[in-house]
Amino acid sequence: MDLTIRKILDKAAAGERLDLAEGVALFDCTDLNALGRAADAVTRRLHPEPIRTYNIDRNINYTNVCAAVCDFCAFFRKSGNADAYVLSREELYKKIDETIALGGDQALLQGGNHPSLKLEWYEDLLRDLKARYPTFNLHAFSAPEIWNFAKINKLPVRDVLQRLKSAGMGSLPGGGGEILVDRVRKAITVNKCLTDEWLDVHRAWHQLGGRSTCTMMFGHIETVAERIEHLDRLRQLQDETHGFTAFICWTLQPPASPPSPLRGRGVGGEGVDMSILPPAGSFEYLRTQAIARLYLDNVPNIQSSWVTQGLKIGQLALLFGANDMGSLMIEENVVASAGTVHYLTLEQIKNAIRELGYEPRQRNVFYELLAV
Question: CA 43 to CA 356: how far, in whole Å?
């Protein structure tokens, strides 16, 4: 192995901070096992306990109507589409009741950037759900949705978040991050928040005392330097607010067929046909997650993405920097709409942890262990 790479790996494993150039240099490392060992050393230092965690929740997509245009998304619909929907309260109650019956303690509520629902609609929704399920956490809305609420209602982001928090929003998911570099975001999305706006939503939420997760979707048009730039922006905000509980990354799941045509954007440089991009494989996933664990020295938890990678690679991710197997994922629609469908039972998740010599423990969104 190149001596420079060896020094960088040793430096990160020892708990020293890497700089941008060192992060980029790690992508030149062809020894995947060496990356994994270094990332695992960091994980074991941060989490020396003989357990690895998971949670039980449900992704509830309360609407698929979205005014944004994302070339990678096969899930969203426009308002006039025949299969556009907004879930009724009765449907939401049924989904939450099923989640609680399976041992779940929260729901991830996400939709699209709906063009007409007002902030009061979301406040009423949260108040209703919290009144009915007072101990059930609502891990609600992504930064692009919050940005959209602020734009539609002509309110500051902080005011929107304060109102949602008062209504019952418990935590903020990290969705919609993709790559936090404006060159990439402008190329693959339209009418969606840019980098600073995504970060500003999380900053404001953290300043209000809230906690959130952060994410990265990679393996499309970004460069490896832009992956590190993305991680660096997250690390900077975490230095400032200490509000991120965990980082989750996954590879682009190309839609099974091209949009029609590219969500109406045309092909002449204004959109990217994600369906023709070669999918990033498990090697790319594992090395990127390992590098993320080495670079994000201030984010306490890394979550495996078995939902996109499947059981075996999801399990292997626990040796490449992850300390958490993620969610049982009772329901998932967005990734599945692109044609990627992996389902695990709770026992499969627990066994994946046990096979690596750890005790499986259920946790909540704040990474607090739940009673056995």
Answer: 14
**Residue 147 and residue 13: Cα distance in Å, rounded?**
37
CATH number of 324's domain: 3.20.20.70
CB contact at 8 A, 7 and 26: no
Are the C-beta atoms of 139 and 177 separated by less than 8 Å? no
pLDDT in tens, 137-174: 999 999 999 999 999 999 999 999 999 999 999 999 99
- Backbone φ and ψ of 202, nearest 5°: -70, -35
**Within-domain flag for 367:** no
Within 10 A of 35 (CB to CB), how many other CB atoms are there?
A: 26
What mean pLDDT value characterizes the chain?
89
Bridge partners for 359 per DSSP: 51
**pTM here?**
0.91
Residue 368 lies in a domain: no
pLDDT of 267 above 60: no
Q: Strands 51-55 and 359-362: what pairing?
A: parallel
What is the spatial distance between Cα 193 and Cα 174, in angstroms, rounded to a whole number? 13
Contact between 210 and 141 under an 8 Å Cβ cutoff? The reply is no
The rounded distance, in Å, linking the Cα atoms of 64 and 117 is 13
Q: Which strand (E) or helix (H) includes residue 10?
A: helix 3-13
Locate 94 and state its tokens: 């049924």
What phi and psi, each to the nearest 5 degrees, are found at residue 312? -65, -45
* 98 close to 362: Cβ distance less than 8 angstroms: no
- Closest by CA to 174, choosing from 319, 305, 316, is 305
Please state the domain count of the chain: 1
Cα atoms in the Cβ-side hemisphere of radius 13 Å centred on 340? 23
Query: Which strand (E) or helix (H) includes residue 297?
Result: none
323 domain-assigned: yes
